[in-house]
Each structure stands twice: as structure tokens, then as C-alpha cells.
Amino acid sequence: MKGYAMLTIGQTGWIEKERPVCGPLDAICRPIALAPCTSDVHTVWAGAIGERKNMILGHEAVGEIVEVGHLVRDFKVGDKVLVSAITPDWNSLEAQGGYAMHSGGMLSGWKFSNFKDGVFAEYFHVNDADGNLAPLPEGMDLGAAAMLSDMMPTGFHGAELAEIAFGDNVAVIGIGPVGLMSVAACAIRGAAQIYAVGSRPNCTALAREYGATEVINYRTGDIVSQIMEQTHGAGVDKVIVAGGDNQTFMQAMEIVKPGGIISNVNYLGQGDTVPIPRAAWGFGMGHKQLRGGLMPGGRRRSEYLARLITTGRIHPEKLISHTFNGLEGVEQALIMMKDKPQDLIKPLVIV
Length: 351
Ligand code: NDP
Ligand code: ZN
Fold this sequence. Notes:
This protein is an alpha/beta fold. The protein binds NADPH dihydro-nicotinamide-adenine-dinucleotide phosphate and zinc ion (ZN). The site of zinc ion has 6 residues, from loops.
């Protein structure tokens, strides 16, 4: 089969591989819709997960099942499915402990385009099919369905980790597709003020549509002074970090109130340590919690988040700014993701 792969750090290309083998609990799917992720860009061009040779990329997909293992209960050949980007081993001790995304070791629930071939291929393999696939709801827009792989669950996990509650004032730093989903999640969970930090015009407009009450441009002024001014010196109850760099934690710690939570879903790709400003952290006694997490993945989450789409409470298809056709389209879509043109939010490939 044909697949679009990371050949080595910094290089991608089309390769031929054997079609993956289906284990008794697994499924083999063909892709219907695909999306590249900022994480694929980090994997290839920043060497974020170390060297990988000839590994097929991609972890965001909607698929159709072409083969199922004999122990799979709920799915059959021909079913159209939502595919979670994170596919834990649901019988692992980590999953039983509530941290399925770390089943088999830290971050090891992330298998596609990390420990095994990803979804940018004619066929891809899904472990633990009953636990990691969900039926594609009848009539669901394919762009919305593709955003259920990673963008929506990750953005929403940011809001979960931050324990967004009624009336919270929140800052969401970074409003690419992940942060935009965090903004929408905060609005659904009852946040009051939502300060969305970003600069691209498409993203800032969509942030407002999803519920941001203020947009803060980090390029035209310091985030801390802008948010402190707008909150009359009080700061915010919660901060979700979905973009930026190591410096962003310094800013988040400055703007979050004592008792507040900083929730990170951003990939940190710089240096060996992350600085925390001592005074802003109350010299270690400020009751400011710093949390960070990989999105949990799995079928239940996909099905529950899908309900928010089928009931019209959220429209993640609005993230799709560019559409390509055919499997070959993943190449252009990924390069676009790397180059991040001003009008990009998220590209989609209809296979
Ligand atoms: P994007 O690159 O599309 O968005 C990043 C956002 O951060 C943009 O709004 C950008 O602003 C903003 N930004 C950049 N630099 C700064 C800065 N210095 N200060 C404040 N804001 C800044 O990324 P995605 O939304 O696709 O992904 C976000 C992160 O989430 C990535 O690191 C990705 O790897 C990670 N991720 C994590 C997952 C998880 O499970 N935890 C899963 C999937 C992704 P501008 O408008 O100027 O571009
Ligand atoms: Zn992703």
C-alpha cells in the first residue's frame, strides 16, 4: 500500500509498505477523511519524538472498516467510524488508574505516527477497535467528524484540566484549532470572560464566534499587561495554554489568580526546563496549580463529544479553512500546516 511518511527527521515522502496485519481485537480501516496536525509538523521538522525512519504520518482520520479481528464485538466490515488520535490499551493498569493515554508508559496511548504507522495511507491499523473506534453518526459533516480525532478532544481536555466552572474568567493562550476548541469548551462549561490570545485574523474571528469575549494580540503588546489591565489588576481564574513557548508559562503564572489553574495542552519543544516565576507563584505558596495533559482518547469520549455536534451545540467544521481531495492531498495539507499561511486554521483531506 501507499503511504505518506516521515523518511527521517526533516524529510517526508511517499513510500510503499505492506498492508498492516489485523490482530483479534483490532480493525483495519481505509481513510475517508484525514487531517494533518501541528504535532505531525513537530514530529518531522522538530524531531520532537526522536528519529523515525519511513514511518507513515498522521493520526487524525475518519475511516471505513475493511477488516475486523474475530474478538471485535461492535464493529463490522463496511462500518464508517470516528477514529481517536489516541488509542490506549484499555485493559492496561494505567487505563484502570484513569490515565489511559499513558497506557504502556508516559504518552504511549499515542500510537499512530509515533510507535506505529499513522493514518496517511491506503490502510491503517486500529488497536482495541471496540475501545478506540466510534460509529460515524448519520449525516455528520466529514470535517466535523475529522475534528473529533484530536482537535476537539484536545481542546476540550484543556478545559477539563482547568476545571472551568460557571462564571470563571479564563485566558486561552493560543487559538489555533486546539485553542479554538478550548474557547468553545469554556463557553459550553459556563465561563464568563474568555480572553483569547492569538493574532491570525481568521482565528480571532472564529474565537469570537465560539465565545471569546476579548481578543488579545500577543504580537502587538505584552499579554500580561493587556490581561491585567482588562481585569483591573485581578487576573483570571484559569489559563489554558494551547500555543506559545516556555515564556508562556511565565505569563500564565503572572495572570492566574491564587487558587487558579494553568492547564497546558501545548507541545513544549524548547530547552530542558520550563521556567516558573518565583514571585508570581507566591514563592511556591500561591496555590496556583500547573497541569498538563495528553488528550485521553477512546470511544466513549468520541461518542460523547459527537453528541455536542449532532445536537448543534458546537460546529468544529468551522475550523476547516482549506480542503484537498484524494489521498495525495495529505502532502500539500501537511506542508501547508508547516508553513502556516495567515489564512490557515486547519486543512482537511477528503479521500
Ligand atoms: P497552531 O500553531 O495552529 O496555533 C498556535 C497558537 O498559538 C496560535 O494562535 C498562535 O498565534 C499562538 N501563539 C504562537 N506563539 C505565541 C506566543 N508566543 N504567545 C501567545 N500565543 C502564541 O497550533 P494547534 O492549535 O494546531 O496546536 C496547538 C498545540 O497543541 C501544538 O503545540 C500541538 O502540538 C499541541 N497538541 C497537543 C495535543 C495534546 O494531546 N495535548 C494534541 C494535538 C496538538 P498566531 O495567531 O499568531 O498564529
Ligand atoms: Zn493531532
